[in-house]
Amino acid sequence: MQARTMLKIAQKYESLTRFIPVKFLPFIYSKMRQYFMDKFYRQLIANTSSIPLNYSDSRILWGIKFGSGLMNAAGIFKNGEGYDLVAFQGAGGYIGGTSTTNPRSGNIKCGVKLPFISLSKSDIAVNFLGLPNLGDEILSKKLLTTKKVDGCPIGWSVMRSPDYEEAKSLELLVQSLFKYQDNLQIDFIEINESCPNVKTDFSNLDRCLEYIAQNFLVNRSRRLPVIIKLSNDIHLESIPSILDLLFKYRFDGVNLGNTSTNYSAFHNKINNPHEKKLFDYFTTTFGGGVSGTVLKSSSLELCSKAVNYRNKINPDYEFHVIRTGGIDSMADIIASNAAGISLNQWYTGYFKNYANFGNSLYQNL
Ligand SMILES: Cc1cc2nc3c(=O)[nH]c(=O)nc-3n(C[C@H](O)[C@H](O)[C@H](O)COP(=O)(O)O)c2cc1C
To answer: 35 CA distance to ligand 1 centroid (A)?
Structure first.
């Protein structure tokens, strides 16, 4: 069965899940996600040319050409799968990861491996995956494609491993950054400073950014932009101080952002009673990060504020604001463009559109 067919069947019969006790559903959804992702990665792309877009939206960031303003978000291709697929689909760029220095198998809780649920009526997903990946030693050497497409640059998302204390994890992260620098297919790096599903202390952002800047940014041997991905939960008021730090250490951009743990804010936005019950069960039993349309306004608001502040300060180098969270339509891209946001990434909306349009999802946006 094709990956897209599987997704459509799952959506068609999803309403039947209301007859299943809610405590069994995370197991079912998580198993189905793993089965689907396996099929999704295995799609063979014979074509060497991309599906043409119906809109012209290419842009140059840091001297790199992005074919459009929309690409996948980190976490879809954790082990560097899928470049040829998204390049064929017509994505504006590709990002693999998030990876960590050591291989990780991800979270298992209450007998559920890589816990995940999807609430399709509310366009929400919640995941408690916990950074499963093959580790930087293997992934940094991976040949991501043999047919790199002009206009579909490659980013890599990396994070300090939660399996080490802070100083060691930073030292190992910097070693990994040099490894990815050696992989000449990679055009830019995104450092994930925001995963809610692992126990990492993100309160010392200043110290960590300073360490990365002093040990990696100033020692880069080629032009390799490095952006920092933060949570969609950060307060609007903290944008100036965060950006001041990023400018001080000369990071090349910010991505706002990652999933949210603001569960109470979303509870009332879920209208379907069954989905509300499942959401409450999952977030109280597993926790996890919330993604999907409920992040649309926060990602736009945070990024708009970041753009305005960047414009006000006018740093003496190129710094870009990237939006992730709740993007699922052309209206979102238009709103981002109007706000001066440089680039957009999607995850939950990507799969919603993939179910509807298959590989023509970018063309049909
Ligand atoms: C199943 C799943 C796995 C994810 N894994 C990662 C990850 O490894 N690294 C990361 O930076 N973000 C990860 N994310 C967060 C997304 O990249 C994105 O920031 C978030 O889902 C908000 O975007 P969306 O509303 O378009 O889904 C993950 C999200 C989901 C749903």
So the answer is: 18
Distance 295 CA to ligand 1 centre (A): 11
Please state, for a pLDDT cut of 90, what percent of the chain lies above it: 87
What integer is the mean pLDDT of 235-239? 94
Q: How far apart are CA 68 and CA 178, in angstroms?
A: 28
Domain positions in the chain are 3-360
Q: What is the pTM of this model?
A: 0.96
Two structure tokens written together for 86: 């998204």
Q: Compute the average pLDDT of residues 58-78.
A: 97
| pLDDT, the chain, mean | 94
**Ligand 1 pocket test target in 136, 291, 324 with most atoms within 8 Å of CB:** 291
What superfamily in CATH does domain 3-360 come from? Answer: Aldolase class I (3.20.20.70)
- The residue nearest atom 21 of ligand 1, judged by CA position, is 291
Cβ(98) – ligand 1 distance below 6 Å: yes
The CB density around residue 10, as the number of other CB atoms within 10 Å, is: 19
Check residue 321 and give its pLDDT.
98
Residues contacting 275, CB < 8 A, separation 6+? 119, 121, 122, 124
Q: Which two tokens stand for residue 11?
A: 């959506």
Terminal CA-to-CA distance of the chain, rounded, Å? 25
The reply to whether ligand 1 has any atom less than 6 angstroms from the CB of 125 is: yes
Ligand 1 and 307: CB distance under 6 A: no
